[in-house]
Every structure is written in structure tokens, then in C-alpha cells.
Amino acid sequence: RESNPPARAAAGQYHSLFIDGEGRLSSYGCPPHPVPGLLGHGEGVTRLNTPTRLPSPLGGARAVSVSAAQYHSLALTAGGAVWSWGQGYLGALGHGDDQDQWQPTKIAALAGQRVIAASAGAGHNLAITADGGVWSWGSGVDGKLGHGDTQLQLLPKQVEALAGRRVVAVSAGGEHSLALTADGAVWSWGDGYFGKLGHSDQQAQLLPKQVE
Questions:
Q1: CA-CA distance, 86 to 67, in Å (whole number)?
Q2: pLDDT digit string (tens) for 175-192?
């Protein structure tokens, strides 16, 4: 409605998310096959043709940003908490297991951190905390979590290779990740096929590497 336009929006492969002017979430979408919890409306709701407000109020907190991936979603509240829902395969939701979540659930492992930005990728996620640190979790294929290996992470873990560098933006892609630091440098890691890491080759990077 023109009188109350969405404050934030995110487009996933099969669904979309909106935040209205009062910090309330809405979603809609129609995936070709049911994806548990993709829309965040509770068990059994797998398709919505029009934007519909989520029944879960994020603990009464106001949502300030959202990120929609292929099979899961993230929401960030004004207090710096991260909520996730959808398919939990490979620990994509950050709750210490691979269970699906039909409605938004707060990521308890980040409770001691104030998150200022979050990005959902294909089975993995990135978050920035107020001190400029980067945290990642989910699928670690091709090193896209930035921890120096290809292991999955069921819980958010800080990317130690970026410690001491103030990160101001992150983006989680399909099989790779990007970070922008306060000094204007770009760092990339994960799958390097097709040269998408920007390092003049197609090699995978298990740790963040600056794009020279």
C-alpha cells in the first residue's frame, strides 16, 4: 500500500520477503516443490500467491533487514538479533542441527553479538557484528565459509582470517563469498570457477583473499 510502503525487501529463487514501515515481515512465493518453512508461516504453508504477514513476531522485535536464499531466509532485528527459517540442510539455519524451521527462530549462538548485517547464500550465511567481525555458518563446500577448510558449520563461527579488519558489507553467493572492508578493499573466497573470485585464476580459496 502506498500509505505504508515496504521498508526492506529481498528476492529469493522461489519466494520474496518484505518489511513494512512498522518492522513487520511478509512473504509470498510458489516453489515448484514444497519447501518446509520457506515462507515462514508455520507447518503446512508452502505456497502463497500474495504478500502475507508472518504470524511470528520475532519476539516482539522490529525487523530492519531480510535476506532470501534459495531454500531459507534470514531476518535481522533492530536489537542486532538474527532469525532464520526454512530448510536446515547442512546447518544452513545456524541452530546446531539440520532441522527445518517452519517459522522464524532466533539464532541463539549469536546472542552475545550485536549483528548489523546478514546475507543468506546457497546453504551458507554471512553476518557482520558491530565490531566489524565476520561470522559464517552452513555448508562449507569449496571453502565458502572462509575457515580454511570445506567442513560444514552447524553454528555461526567467526572468520578468523578477517579478524582485525573492519568489515562493513558482506554478500553470500552460490558457492563463494565477498566482504568489503572499511578501507575499501574487497575480499573473496570459495569456489573460483569462471574466475568469479577475481584473482586471475579459477582456483578455490579456502580463506579470504584480497582482490588485488
A1: 12
A2: 999 999 999 999 999 999
- Nearest 5°: the CA angle 146, 204, 144 is 30
Q: What is the CA radius of gyration of the chain?
A: 17
How far, rounded to the nearest angstrom, does the alpha carbon of residue 132 sit from its chain's CA centroid? Answer: 17
Pairwise CA distance, residues 66 & 70, whole Å: 14
Beta bridge partners of 181: 167
The C-alpha cell that represents 139 in the structure block? 555448508
Tens digit of pLDDT for each residue in 43-55? 999 999 999 999 9
Give the DSSP per-residue string, 88-142: -GGGTTSSSS---EEEEEE-GGGTTS-EEEEEE-SSEEEEEETTS-EEEEE--GG
Query: What pLDDT shows up at residue 7?
Result: 52
* pLDDT band per the 50, 70, 90 thresholds, residue 6: very low
Length of the chain: 212
Q: Which residues of 14-26 are buried (b: 16+ CB within 10 A; e: fewer)?
A: bbbbbbbeebbbb
- For residue 87, report the phi and psi dihedrals to the nearest 5 degrees: -80, 130
Q: What is the rounded distance in angstroms from the CA atom of residue 57 to the CA atom of residue 187?
A: 35
- Look at residue 204 and give its three-state secondary structure: coil
β-pair partners for 27: 17, 52
